[in-house]
């Protein structure tokens, strides 16, 4: 029986750089762009002599990259050995498999281990699929002479093959081999693989999401950090598991047992220690207030390297601690202020829906300087004040981020992005706009009111910005009813009208 799990990509709206240090918080929105992992047995039955086997088979398929890798999984020390000639390995999936299987060994008693071994002896057949939104198809759209509009993206078949960037003349890969949109594909992919495997092996039950999600989170964070070769803030994995929320990172020490695996300590003992560890990350429920939309645009100026930008900011922090601390404090206060304005708006929507809806509808047709005229009574005025408050705070956040970038010598909000964001914030129905996460050239986001999004996508198109199909979806990791590729076929068939 196949198990299919999916996990969402993310947009870090506030908390870029600060989120690396406790107790700073960041607001992370999960999206409708999802990564899927399909796990099923490789063989229908176990061979009679399988009790003597020390290894089982694992097959990993990535149809979009036209790649297939074969592995042997040691049933004794739970490590994977690649046995196919495939030169390109996927460390995220490899670590996800090892740690998920180790977690099953660490949590099951003797009685269940027999069942687990039988399941593993049937082999693991794993397929990974990422929604088109994770990847940039801008080049294909431009090559076909199509307009830079979401309609062109929507016309692509789901899970379209991904083109690799060409190497340059020296054979050096200048760009990453696959152009991405910055939605956190590796975190979503790792989480989907961990979740589907843990469900398949009976460690968690994804259909009744309770404390089981915490196990998925711990295993996915561990696998992702090991594959990355460093302990990051973990907000991307956290949103892939739990959906949209306000996040404060875990203490990196909780992952120190992973260093023991290098000393030859069995993986199941390492993961048992990690599962017992003091995971002190914090998350508070958060999502955009009603009638607000998240919009993402790809400016097409080439991606930025987040790790090198983070490195430069850390270096600046050390060289000028006083200035850095002051900028940090101001940024932190502004981030908190934005969150407060959003919470006020959500509360106003809950308590005075008619006044709230009326203001959002009328402001969605106007530029911000005319919003205050839309309020005809005190409740409506409260809504407009909170909208303008959120807007002004976002301008402060952008200002602090720019200053930090200038001091550290990194393009947190490059000149071209500043012009684009200012133009965007001057459009009808735009609440705010910014550069997500660490900043750079990757993407821009806007939060729009009511039905104003379509006008903004058209305006972006004329500015050479491709609006993506991504929207906020506060759901985290989910168990799916079947292979997403067959779902696409079914929905396409059901939409055919027979005259």
TrEMBL record:
Gene Ontology CC annotation, any one: peroxisome
Transmembrane segments: none
Enzyme class (EC, first level): transferase
All residue ranges annotated as the GHMP kinase N-terminal domain in the record: 180-243
UniProt keyword Thylakoid present: no
E.C. number: 2.7.4.2
Pathway given in the UniProt record: Isoprenoid biosynthesis; isopentenyl diphosphate biosynthesis via mevalonate pathway; isopentenyl diphosphate from (R)-mevalonate: step 2/3
InterPro entries reported in the protein's UniProt record: Erg8, GHMP_kinase_C_sf, GHMP_kinase_N_dom, Phosphomevalonate_kinase, Ribosomal_Su5_D2-typ_SF, Ribsml_uS5_D2-typ_fold_subgr
Keywords attached to this entry: ATP-binding, Kinase, Lipid biosynthesis, Lipid metabolism, Nucleotide-binding, Steroid biosynthesis, Steroid metabolism, Transferase
Gene Ontology molecular function, alphabetical: ATP binding; phosphomevalonate kinase activity
NCBIfam families: Pmev_kin_ERG8 (TIGR01219)
Protein family membership: Belongs to the GHMP kinase family. Mevalonate kinase subfamily.
PANTHER family, A to Z: PHOSPHOMEVALONATE KINASE (PTHR31814:SF2), PTHR31814
Protein name: phosphomevalonate kinase
């Amino acid at each position: 029986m196949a198990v299919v799990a999916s996990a969402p990509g993310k947009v870090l709206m506030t908390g870029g750089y600060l989120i690396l240090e406790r107790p700073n918080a960041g607001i992370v929105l999960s999206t409708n762009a999802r990564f899927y992992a399909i796990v099923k047995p490789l063989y229908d039955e176990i061979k009679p002599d399988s009790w003597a086997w020390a290894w089982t088979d694992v097959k990993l398929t990535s149809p979009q990259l036209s790649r297939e890798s074969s592995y042997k999984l040691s049933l004794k020390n739970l490590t994977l050995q690649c046995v196919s000639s495939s030169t390109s390995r996927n460390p995220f999936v490899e670590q996800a498999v090892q740690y998920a299987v180790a977690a099953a060994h660490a949590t099951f008693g003797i009685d269940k281990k027999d069942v687990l071994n039988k399941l593993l002896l049937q082999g693991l057949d794993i397929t990974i699929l990422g929604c088109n939104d994770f990847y940039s198809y801008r080049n294909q759209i431009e090559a076909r002479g199509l307009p830079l509009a979401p309609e062109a993206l929507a016309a692509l078949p789901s899970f379209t093959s991904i083109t690799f960037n060409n190497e340059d003349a020296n054979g050096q890969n200048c760009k990453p081999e696959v152009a991405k949109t910055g939605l956190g594909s590796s975190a979503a992919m790792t989480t989907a693989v961990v979740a589907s495997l843990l469900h398949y092996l009976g460690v968690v039950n994804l259909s009744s999401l309770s404390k089981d999600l915490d196990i998925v989170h711990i295993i996915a964070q561990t696998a992702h950090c090991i594959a990355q070769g460093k302990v990051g803030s973990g907000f991307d994995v956290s949103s892939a598991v739990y959906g949209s929320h306000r996040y404060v990172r875990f203490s990196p020490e909780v992952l120190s047992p992973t260093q023991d695996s290098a000393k030859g300590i069995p993986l199941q003992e390492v993961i048992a220690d990690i599962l017992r560890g003091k995971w002190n990350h914090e998350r508070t429920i958060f999502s955009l207030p009603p009638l607000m939309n998240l919009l993402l645009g790809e400016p097409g100026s080439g991606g930025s390297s987040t790790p090198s930008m983070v490195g430069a900011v850390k270096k600046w922090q050390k060289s000028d601690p006083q200035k850095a601390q002051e900028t940090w404090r101001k940024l932190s206060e502004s981030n908190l202020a934005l969150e407060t304005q959003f919470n006020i708006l959500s509360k106003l929507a809950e308590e005075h829906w008619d006044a709230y809806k009326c203001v959002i509808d009328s402001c969605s047709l106007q530029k911000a300087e005319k919003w205050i005229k839309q309020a005809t009574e005190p409740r409506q005025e409260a809504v407009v004040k909170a909208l303008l408050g959120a807007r002004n705070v976002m301008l402060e956040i952008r200002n602090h981020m720019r200053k930090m970038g200038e001091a550290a010598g990194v393009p947190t909000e490059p000149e071209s992005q500043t012009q684009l964001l200012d133009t965007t914030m001057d459009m009808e129905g735009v609440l705010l706009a910014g550069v997500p996460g660490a900043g750079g050239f990757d993407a821009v986001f806007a939060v729009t009111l009511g039905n104003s999004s379509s006008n903004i996508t058209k305006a972006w198109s004329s500015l050479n910005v491709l609006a993506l199909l991504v929207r906020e979806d506060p759901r985290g990791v989910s168990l799916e009813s079947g292979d997403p590729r067959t779902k696409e076929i079914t929905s396409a068939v059901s939409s055919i009208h027979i005259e």
